[in-house]
Design goal:
Elements: E1 8-16, H1 19-33, E2 36-41, E3 48-58, H2 59-74, E4 79-90, E5 95-104, H3 106-120, E6 136-144, H4 148-155, E7 159-165, E8 167-176, E9 179-189
């Protein structure tokens, strides 16, 4: 990437999950795959919690985002999130998104997401029109062999462990050899 500000990258702000939580998610995902007739499944290294999708950003915007995010993160205390619950966003004939939910310090998560929206709006990144619904995507365009409610019931209660949120990351999203790859570009420590 050149430093002239012309080249753009696809990016988002998010939270990295603890390795043991990613492992537990992967194990659940493998059990769920047995019920699937088709679908696209997220790779273990790509499990994350999105705070804000930015789409294409330039080098100049990256520097502005860094400055804004350091200020936001510097005023926030670390908090805990627990991966728990499972649901879907329906599509036409398929499950558009199969997701895992969150519990724990949700007021802190919502507050952080709001402050990110407020800090980035002046930089040309308007707030989402839809309400923020924190979730971890584990599959897309899934067609199961039976109704999802039956699968959810047979899977039992989903409670996959705790992630201590003490950093936010700016991630780059790119397609590499037909595989979606997320790379950390910047790190912002919560130290309020």
């Amino acid at each position: 990437m050149t430093d002239n500000g012309d080249k753009t990258i696809r990016a988002f702000l998010g939270i990295e999950l603890a390795p043991e939580v990613k492992k537990a998610i992967y194990e659940l995902q493998q059990r769920l795959r047995k019920y699937a007739l088709k679908g696209r499944w997220k790779y273990i290294e790509n499990y994350h919690l999105t705070l804000k999708f930015l789409d294409q950003i330039s080098m100049a915007q990256w520097k502005q985002i860094d400055a804004a995010m350091r200020e936001v993160a510097g005023g926030k205390k670390p908090f805990d999130l627990i991966v728990s619950g499972m649901g879907v966003f329906a599509g036409k004939g398929a499950i558009r998104v199969l997701w895992l939910g969150l519990s724990g310090d949700l007021p802190e998560l919502y507050s952080l997401q709001r402050e990110i929206d407020q800090a980035l709006t002046p930089l040309g990144f308007p707030p989402e029109k839809r309400p923020y619904r924190p979730h971890i995507t584990i599959g897309q365009d899934i067609v199961f062999e039976c109704p999802f409610d039956q699968i959810r019931e047979s899977s039992g209660e989903v409670h996959l462990g705790l992630t201590k949120v003490d950093n936010i990351y700016l991630f780059k999203s790119e397609q590499v050899q037909q595989k979606r790859v997320y790379s950390k570009l910047s790190e912002y420590q919560l130290n309020g």
